[in-house]
Amino acid sequence: MTTPALLPLSGRRIPPLNLGPPSFPHHRATLRLSEKFILLLILSAFITLCFGAFFFLPDSSKHKRFDLGLEDVLIPHVDANKGAKNPGAFLIHGPDEHRHREEEEHLRNKIRADHEKALEEAKEKLKKSREEIQAEIQTEKNKVVQEMKTKEKKPLPPVPIPNLLGISGGDPEDNDIKKKREKIKEMMKHAWDNYRIYGWGHNELRPIAKKGHSTNIFGNSQLGATIVDALDTLYIMGLHDEFRDGQKWIEDNLDFSVNSEVSVFEVNIRFIGGLLTAYYLSGEEVFKIKAVQLAEKLLPAFNTPTGIPWAMVNLKSGVGRNWGWASAGSSILAEFGTLHMEFVHLSYLTGDPVYYKKVMHIRKLLQKMERPNGLYPNYLNPRTGRWGQYHTSVGGLGDSFYEYLLKAWLMSDKTDHEARKMYDDAIEAIEKHLIKKSRGGLTFIGEWKNGHLEKKMGHLACFAGGMFALGADGSRDKAGHYLELGAEIARTCHESYDRTALKLGPESFKFDGAVEAVAVRQAEKYYILRPEVIETYWYLWRFTHDPRYRQWGWEAALAIEKYCRVSGGFSGVKDVYSSTPAYDDVQQSFFLAETLKYLYLLFSGDDLLPLDHWVFNTEAHPLPVLRLANTTLSGNPAVR
Ligand code: DMJ
């Protein structure tokens, strides 16, 4: 993997100072940068001068002037050393003298500390790389523009809240189904209560060690990821005390002004998605406010030469960068391509088109690009606007990009035809090049790597069964075909569960000769409480009402209960082929957001969150369809 000299990864390196005439396309930024540099140098020299003057010039601070006219306490000061009168200057005598000396000393210390601090800050600035300084300047500019806009803004016309049908209910009539639904709710209680006891405020829970846990996607701050991710599941299950508890924590503690580098994609789908849904369900303003606060913090990630956002952004400095492992400094398709739903809702709710414009810009750029075999590669360089390696996947790195094309169309009340066309074209190419049938008759989605099909399917790709079913209606006269394709993927993914000792699916599985739907490498045998297979069962259940999907979902629920439940919550397992598996000791936040929610919905009536009113984001946070044509708003959120 090559690393260009000015990649953000090399952010700690100081690029050569360019004071000469600009010689590359960012000359305007370079000039400003140089000016800033010179200013900083002058500032630090000035501070050093003041500092020196303060300590090495004669100590005039002792000659403090007082104009109080109190002759009994103020007498003309005589310089003891020179014996000369210093007219107009008075020294304080009497009982106050000591106090004033102390005050002076205190003042001097404070000035000294301030100077040292300013000097340190100037030095720190000079240590920063060109990218960091550029991003800081841009962030400052954005802040000023934003402040000006806020000042100028007239109060928004009230936003017509979409028709929020089916936010509770769904009680099944059948007694057996009712019991199963109750069991899922009990599992949610167990996961939540233990997080409440042992991990409260941390991002996730270690259910064996019984303490908080986090990963780099959330940065180094305790942002309560599990709380935010779980809120809507608690709400639809009727766990309202727990919901309020979570709301209180968010009101009191959730603060995004932290010096922490987070994944733009992950915080968008889990935090912004979770907060927006919590707002729509409960109507509590705090969730909307927090969602907007976070979104503002993510905006600097888009300050790249192409407008394709960085994978990570520091919430405080606004400095962005990409994952070190991504092909040639690229951004990831499934990351920058999974912002649309949340960002459209942000523009809708705030009346500020900035979010909408960011995601539409990404779409326009992608539309202009040439696609090898009609496929979207997983990697795109945000500096050059060129694809990285030609890898295409419907699993990790690609998955939710396709999902959001379809859902952009659904969320727009099926008016965003551009998104639908992009989805249809992409799916056609995927079917042609990536979807195959195994010798044993299982349909699978492989991965395209530099012109070669790898016959391996990830657990993540299993979500596509649900996506094909959801997109069937509205496809180019192929509704029956796509529903069938969704059902075939569901069957394959069920097989990947059924062929293990624990009846839980591995992270990825192969189709190679005699091997079918089975993981081969040890490193691919784990199950981390992922939702995708159950998600597909639920969509297929909604569209077909074939009882097999409830049956398969129940098998998975029992397996999770038996092999993943521990006294401190639920844990992932390291090897689904071993009947005595080791735990990974992580209760993922998506287990509460997605896995348990999809299971609960699978055993609920269709009137709970009906699919013609709600569209689920990729973290299973339902967002209402925006029927803008029927509102007083004209067209899309960008022109409100
Ligand atoms: C979730 O965070 C989301 O579903 C995402 O799109 C991909 N994977 C995880 C769960 O497996």
TrEMBL record:
Topology within the bilayer: Single-pass type II membrane protein
Homology family: Belongs to the glycosyl hydrolase 47 family.
InterPro entries named among the record's database cross-references: 6hp_glycosidase-like_sf, Glyco_hydro_47, Glycosyl_Hydrolase_47, Seven-hairpin_glycosidases
Pathway(s) of this molecule: Protein modification; protein glycosylation
Localization per record: Endomembrane system
Protein name in the entry: alpha-1,2-Mannosidase
Annotated TM spans: 37-57
GO biological process: carbohydrate metabolic process
Ranges for region Disordered: 148-176
SS bonds (residue pairs): C462-C493
Cofactor(s) demanded: Ca(2+)
E.C. code: 3.2.1.-
Binding site for Ca(2+): T618
Active-site residues, record numbering mapped to chain: E266 (proton donor), D399, E507 (proton donor), E532
GO cellular component: endoplasmic reticulum; extracellular exosome; Golgi membrane
Function in brief: Involved in the maturation of Asn-linked oligosaccharides. Progressively trim alpha-1,2-linked mannose residues from Man(9)GlcNAc(2) to produce Man(5)GlcNAc(2).
Keywords: Calcium, Disulfide bond, Glycosidase, Hydrolase, Membrane, Metal-binding, Signal-anchor, Transmembrane, Transmembrane helix
Gene this protein is translated from: MAN1A2
Pfam families from the UniProt entry: Glyco_hydro_47
GO MF annotations, alphabetized: calcium ion binding; mannosyl-oligosaccharide 1,2-alpha-mannosidase activity
Catalyzed chemical reaction(s): N(4)-(alpha-D-Man-(1->2)-alpha-D-Man-(1->2)-alpha-D-Man-(1->3)-[alpha-D-Man-(1->2)-alpha-D-Man-(1->3)-[alpha-D-Man-(1->2)-alpha-D-Man-(1->6)]-alpha-D-Man-(1->6)]-beta-D-Man-(1->4)-beta-D-GlcNAc-(1->4)-beta-D-GlcNAc)-L-asparaginyl-[protein] (N-glucan mannose isomer 9A1,2,3B1,2,3) + 4 H2O = N(4)-(alpha-D-Man-(1->3)-[alpha-D-Man-(1->3)-[alpha-D-Man-(1->6)]-alpha-D-Man-(1->6)]-beta-D-Man-(1->4)-beta-D-GlcNAc-(1->4)-beta-D-GlcNAc)-L-asparaginyl-[protein] (N-glucan mannose isomer 5A1,2) + 4 beta-D-mannose; N(4)-(alpha-D-Man-(1->2)-alpha-D-Man-(1->2)-alpha-D-Man-(1->3)-[alpha-D-Man-(1->3)-[alpha-D-Man-(1->2)-alpha-D-Man-(1->6)]-alpha-D-Man-(1->6)]-beta-D-Man-(1->4)-beta-D-GlcNAc-(1->4)-beta-D-GlcNAc)-L-asparaginyl-[protein] (N-glucan mannose isomer 8A1,2,3B1,3) + 3 H2O = N(4)-(alpha-D-Man-(1->3)-[alpha-D-Man-(1->3)-[alpha-D-Man-(1->6)]-alpha-D-Man-(1->6)]-beta-D-Man-(1->4)-beta-D-GlcNAc-(1->4)-beta-D-GlcNAc)-L-asparaginyl-[protein] (N-glucan mannose isomer 5A1,2) + 3 beta-D-mannose
Organism in which the protein naturally occurs: Phyllostomus discolor (pale spear-nosed bat)
